[in-house]
Amino acid sequence: AVLRLFGFLLLSLAAWYLGSFAAHHVPQNAISTAALQEIGKKPVLRAPAPKRQKCDHWSPCPPGNFAYRILSGGGKQRKAKICFEDEQNAPGCMGRNVMCVPWVTSCAIDSTDHSGQMMDFIRKAPEGTLILMATYDDGSTRLKNNARKLVEELGSKEIKNIKFRSSWVFIAAKGFNLPDNIQKEKINHSDQTKNRYRGWPAEIQIEGCIPRNLI
């Protein structure tokens, strides 16, 4: 009984000493009620903000590749957008030839009769050139057959099928072959029961990566 009493007194003295020490040395605002409430809560994991990729790709192209993205127009107000290695280009070949880099050129086809200029655009592009093309507004009405044939010779399967206000995008290589696994062309025809805009179908796009060693 004496040992138990002695042990109880010793523990009480130790507890009093620790309490006094904490009261004198720990700042009053060191532990708040909010901090105590946070104890025991599960940590919240927050994903980092996604890094923007070239030409707004969801994932980056592998090392040694160029990134591209071709977006058709959507009616008169939404013009075509062509991007190569994050260089954004205004529609270009219809009298406003735009070169991204020496061996990449872009072209947008509208409703004006520029078939002759378009053919010059293609013919003057040197061997080893990437050609990126898209429509906006209407790219079919005044596009002459000889211009269509020249685009077809670049590998287009759909240029002959473009109808009134069709949306169309295309990537071609002059003087070399593109990889078989990339989408080279896409078309969307106007349909009054499905059109996104009044009289025009939705925009369409293709995007991908081109190995640098091909060019």
UniProtKB/TrEMBL annotation:
Q: Name one GO cellular component term.
A: extracellular region
Q: Which residues form the signal peptide?
A: 1-22
Q: Where in the cell is it found?
A: Secreted
**Matching PROSITE patterns:** GG_LECTIN
> Major place of localization?
secreted
UniProt-recorded name of the protein: FAM3B protein
- Name the protein family: Belongs to the FAM3 family.
Enumerate the spans annotated as ILEI/PANDER domain: 112-175
The keyword Thylakoid is assigned to this record: no
Keyword Translocase found: no
User: What keywords are assigned to this protein?
Assistant: Disulfide bond, Lectin, Secreted, Signal
The Swiss-Prot or TrEMBL record annotates one GO molecular function as: carbohydrate binding
